[in-house]
Write a structure and sequence with these properties.
The structure is a homodimer of 283-residue chains. In chain A, strand 1 and strand 2 form a beta hairpin. Chain A contains nine helices and nine strands. Chain A has 283 residues and is an alpha/beta fold. Chain A has a single domain, classed as Rossmann fold (3-Layer(aba) Sandwich). Chain A is globular.
Chain lengths: 283, 283
């Protein structure tokens, strides 16, 4: 492992190793923490990599503790990478009012262009460039077989990154994603704050707009709880369904009666998603 | 549900309902919180009940969030009950130094006889009498089919309660249990503090002593991580193995290389334990 990446903790779980790591990011200019689960594997094996992007307020810890992904990853032979959701630390500007939906814990997976956020809020480049290099260097990862999933804001990240880099990601799925940030309050605040008020710049960070503008992938899987408090105002999965239908993208959108926005929902369907990813990663 | 039991939260997960509940306990004289998972079931069904007793510092929340039990409970049709580990609230005395291993979060599943603990620290009666009545009244529970498991201090609780009430509990298992509190520092402090220095009174709250004194059950299942920091000083599973061998109790003690004392260990083997319980609950 390169000197610059430090192991915070590493424990055995489901026959593999669940590690938390820390490094100084050149991209964000801050220390960054992420977690990686590596299943038991043959000495020379290279395993496919599933990226999981978390939602508002989360760090790498939420899914690592509550996501219930290790059993299926061990069974299917998948490395599971969970990054943080924003830069953090002294000197990293936050939401002026300390709100949960902007700033710390709310990087929205974009490279900010607006002061004072442009210096550190570079989550797009961090997730698509810097962290993949580290994963490829430090773990038994087959970087030709990657897939991406996420929850809420992280579902937005998974969809926009996956749609932008369809050659890299063999599977893309999301739990309760923000599908059209340009059309909802969370997105107005975040994209306006990080990218400025010229909405043309927002389209590269809006899954529905990306599809309207020509982005194509073979298939998407989305689970959405019907008892999710954010469904109507912030998530609006029907907008994704409409865009996919027009574009000929095979979207499986499963509305799940009774489920909310929490990890009690995510963990229920995590194994389904991992099996869906594994089929495409191993095709 | 009786007026006295209030639902703090209830969410859908793995097709069932994961609830957190609150009530005023007559036994402890405090408010108590517990969690219950009820799988999806036929309208008139009564389901077996698995009790899970948590370890030092825990509340009902740790296993509820990190225990990864819902998938197997849903599949096997098991109700899963997770109580708190001690009385709490204003007026409940704590360890004088605020240590983690006595007082709040560390009730050790005994009825204290020593002042100032005797007033509220009645976890034995709470777990064996008051809470079962609530579970039987409020949930579709078949109270003729109960089993018990626990972790660390809760493994101690599961073993001592199960060995004392073998007619009630069809299966007993533990993750990294304190098997002989009379012989280890955690136990000396807790049993001395709650029960006094007359060690005769400790034997009813020490699994190894209970077996030496004649308690008998058909079988026990214990998983123990070999990388557990508490293994040599506090847990000493070989003492249970020796007692079970002499007594003719069929102990399955599985030493698990690489595993520590955390929920990363517990969650790995939770499904094994639930299947082992289900076999005995449905026999």
């Amino acid at each position: 492992m390169p000197v610059a990446v430090e192991t915070v903790s590493s424990v055995t779980s489901f026959g593999g190793e669940q590690a938390v790591l820390r490094h100084t990011s050149e991209v964000t200019g801050t220390e960054m923490i992420f977690s990686v689960f590596v299943p038991d594997h043959a000495p020379d094996a290279k395993l496919p990599v599933v990226w999981y992007l978390s939602g508002l307020t989360c760090t790498q810890a939420n899914v690592t503790e509550k996501g219930e992904f290790r059993r299926a990853c061990a069974e299917l032979g998948l490395i599971f990478v969970a990054p943080d959701t924003s830069p953090r630390g002294e000197g990293v500007p936050d939401d002026g009012d300390g709100a949960y939906d902007f700033g710390l814990g709310a990087g929205f997976y974009v490279d900010a262009t607006q002061d004072p956020f442009a210096q550190h809020y570079k989550m797009w480049s961090y997730i698509t460039e810097e962290l993949p290099e580290i994963i490829g260097d430090c773990f038994p990862a087959d970087m030709d077989r990657q897939s991406i999933m996420g929850h809420s804001m992280g579902g937005h990240g998974a969809l926009t990154i996956g749609l932008t880099l369809p050659e890299r990601f063999k599977a893309i799925s999301a739990f309760a994603p923000i599908v059209a940030p340009s059309q909802v309050p969370w997105g107005h605040k975040a994209l306006g704050g990080y990218l400025g008020e010229d909405r043309a710049a927002w389209r590269a960070h809006d899954a529905v707009a990306l599809i309207e503008d020509g982005a194509r992938v073979p298939a998407l899987l989305v689970d959405q709880g019907e008892a999710d408090n954010f469904l109507e105002e912030q998530l609006k999965p029907h907008l994704l369904a409409e865009a996919c239908e027009k574009a000929g993208i095979d979207l499986t959108l499963r509305m799940q009666p009774g489920y909310d926005h929490s990890y009690y929902f995510i963990s229920t369907f995590m194994e389904d998603h991992l099996h869906w990813h594994a089929e495409r990663l191993k095709a």
